[in-house]
Amino acid sequence: MKYLVQPLVSYSANAPGNEGAEGRVFTIASEHSSLVLTAREELVWQQVPGGLKGIDAGVDGAVWGVNAANQVYQWTGSSWQQMPGSLKQISVGSASQIWGVAPDDSIWRWNGSGWVQVPGGLKHVSVGADGAVWGVNAADDIYRWTGSTWIKVDGKLKQISVGNRTTVWGVNAADDIWVRQGDHWQQIGGKLKYVSAAADGALWGVNAADEIWRWRGNWEKLSGGLKVVAAGSASNVWGVNAADGIYRNAGAGNGRLVQQIWTEDPRQQWRITPNGDGTFKIANVGTGQVLDVRGSSFDKGADVLIWPWHGGNNQRWRISDLGVSRFRIDAVHSGQSLDVYGGSYEAGGPIIQWPWHGGGNQRWRLAEVRSASVIFDPAATVYEHSNFQGRSLRLGVGSYDIQSLSAVGNDTVSSVRVPTGVRVTLYEHAGFSGRRKSFTGDTGYVGDDFNDITSGVSVEKVVTIYEHGNYGGAASVLGVGRYNISQLGIPNDSLSSLRVPQGMIVTLYEHADFQGAQRVYFEDASFVGAAFNDRVSSIEVQPLGLVIPRNALRYGGQIQLRSVHGKWLVAEDNGGLNANRGAAGPWETFTIERSGPGQHQSHVAYGDVISLRSVHGKYVVAEDNGTANANRGAIGPWEKWIVVRSGAGASDVFVTHGDVLSLRSWKNLYLVAEDNGAANANRAAIGPWEQWTITGCTPPAINSSGGGGVGQRRTLRGRGLQRQRLRDRGLRRRACGAEACGIDAALVGACGPRPPASPSAGPTSRSSALCGAAVTGAGACGAAACGAAACGADACGAAASGSGPAARRPAARRPAARRLAAPMPAARRPAAPRPAARQPGADAGPISSCPVDVCGANVCAVNLCPADACGADACAVDIIPIIPGI
């Protein structure tokens, strides 16, 4: 992870237009898809020194190749380094997923230091970013690797490409193009001799004439000529030509603006600079070019491009704060809004201008991109003797009762080390009772009044406010809480600077009682600016995280869906799907699995792409004729559903027990409960029959590793949380999402009742879950027990801003789909390359977890903690909130 991506909220000090924001770098993400705006400059092939006959690229930028002598090379970023081994073909999913085939068809896997042989023989192998491996042999038979053996799959292909386990493409001996759809192959028009699929949805190919083609719902011919193309991602495409010359594509989209999965590419980062007239220039960091409406067009649906700055009104944008951390972006010349074309959820979806309708594809999340070095993982150390001597115990953010202090001993603490931005409170008695004393810096002796009497310790992040700029004058340390005039610790209307450790959010109010103008800070500010200097009369300090409603749905959990007719959706044992049951039982219960872009790693959010698996092990499918069934053994596009909010719900973000929702299929048609008890997927708009109420909600199995649920727990780091306590609570070494993992104390009462407003008030013990504060800077959340006893782990009550019952939103008007002429002659459609009988279980199973390490990864929002937060006994406080889904 190179960057921390931190969302803006209303009144953010670092928001565009505020003092000092001009030098900031931002991402801009669509509310409905969670994908980020990405610049794609004109297609330019850049030659790279060297000669290779074959090449492949991974999603993380890893590139390997083989030459005519079957020697293996790795790209270092500036040159080719020869690696051991002899291979005729190589495949790269990522730096840790590299497979190859030797001249004798033997199969090999790179283990980081050498090649390990895999049983079997293939002429071509392909590995995805998630480790999925497919291959074809000399007879064009297709095989899939299970992790221990090869399973033969129906069909015939001469070459195959795997983006991930649900993205598998190939070409046969006749150059016909095929894509795996769940448990069967579907032909795609056109002819290619070689195809390359990336995990982010990018798809490229070359035909028999070495022409280069890119898939965007149809095939688009691009400049150049290659015999092999390798798409690591939409922005990382390589190839070799007939003379074994190596080429790298510097861009991948003809100057257009698209939405893409976050890859930390500079072309996904933007500087938003005021023009001095209330409008903004939005410049791309990677290219230096700016957002521009093509040709200054006033047409609705006109493309948004990147283009050199000339100052025209088609390059000037108005940014309007919509509240709840959402923004509207309008072109000055036309008044139309930045819009994801057709409401697409797919990576690569183009960006256009369109009249404002308020849909999620016109609402944008802005977030600041900062170096990962800002991640603050504080820990204090308590010592048995004075001057930091004797036994010691390092404690992360959290609360540690008497049983957690055994390493240093009860009633033994005499000195403490406390880093900047942290407050340590010692308690006289177990249960966080009796006298207490707090420390905000290294203390070689805790004093005669507290020496050798400590039976409990809490460690919390704190904010420091200062009377003068540059952190001068009188200072006051504030923990989580609300502070009115008399409780600030410095004179009223005197605040000029403040220090805010990463993971905290501070809201300054102009007047007492949290009234008047507001300004929100996520970071240190040596001067709050002329607009707020010496004007602060009340302050709110909160941990920066996400509010998760009680009973929020989690991946791997189970639900039941009741129609407006009072009947439940049922998966019959013959593969049929109906909506005709008057009670809910096992056949009316479905497991939720992640199968596409989603906002959060552990919890289901609106706009997520999910699949529903029945008790019979089959997936709910939308057939191309408009019917719906539950008869597929694996996930493909037809088994994917977009979760759409269509009625009352507990949260604007998370899907919760009791919510009313709709499910949209791959054909943009909704799952419907007919009045005769049938279930179909053939409605183009949402009405009562397309609405489903969640009436059953079961959390995922504690030891389950699938279903896209919470990632596997990392090693506990000695933060006083004993593994036995985890087992006693039924957590069994699983990381939680935003819930606090059996926390024994809420730091200064982040959940439940408001904490004492006194600056000297310390943490209080409670056994409720500690939820993160809303990123909107809004209020607290209800107390709830953490653990597996309730759906969503009862992480927090839904009492945050925007999380109450909401009125039904009208469906966003979308531009009609444009039908582009196919640039390639349509190929004859022969019978699919497979026997009629399906192979149950082929490629079964969802994408079970984030593709990279959960803790410290920039893709999992809810359970992304900087350092084993669950082990710190305070998961929510340590959460790094990022753009959902990136």
Topology:
Blueprint: E1 3-7, E2 26-30, E3 36-39, E4 45-51, E5 54-57, E6 63-66, E7 71-75, E8 80-86, E9 89-94, E10 97-101, E11 106-110, E12 115-121, E13 124-127, E14 133-136, E15 141-145, E16 150-156, E17 159-164, E18 167-171, E19 176-181, E20 184-191, E21 194-197, E22 203-206, E23 211-215, E24 219-225, E25 228-233, E26 236-240, E27 245-249, E28 257-260, E29 270-274, E30 280-284, E31 290-293, E32 304-307, E33 317-323, E34 326-331, E35 337-340, E36 351-354, E37 364-371, E38 379-385, E39 389-396, E40 398-400, E41 415-417, E42 422-429, E43 433-439, E44 456-461, E45 463-468, E46 472-478, E47 481-483, E48 497-499, E49 504-511, E50 515-521, E51 538-543, E52 558-563, E53 568-571, E54 577-581, E55 590-594, E56 609-613, E57 619-622, E58 628-632, E59 641-645, E60 660-664, E61 670-673, E62 679-683, E63 692-698, H1 723-728, E64 745-746, E65 764-765
Antiparallel strand pairs: 1-37, 2-37, 3-28, 4-27, 5-6, 6-7, 7-8, 9-10, 10-11, 11-12, 13-14, 14-15, 15-16, 17-18, 18-19, 19-20, 21-22, 22-23, 23-24, 25-26, 26-27, 29-30, 31-32, 33-34, 35-36, 38-39, 38-41, 40-44, 42-43, 42-44, 45-46, 45-48, 47-51, 49-50, 49-51, 52-55, 52-63, 53-54, 55-56, 56-59, ...
Outline the structure in words.
The structure is a single chain. The chain has 886 residues and is mostly beta strands. Helix content is 1%, strand content 39%. It has one helix and 65 strands. The strands form 21 sheets. A six-stranded antiparallel beta barrel has the order 52-55-56-59-60-63. It is globular and about 85 Å long. The chain starts with a strand and ends in a 121-residue tail after the last strand.
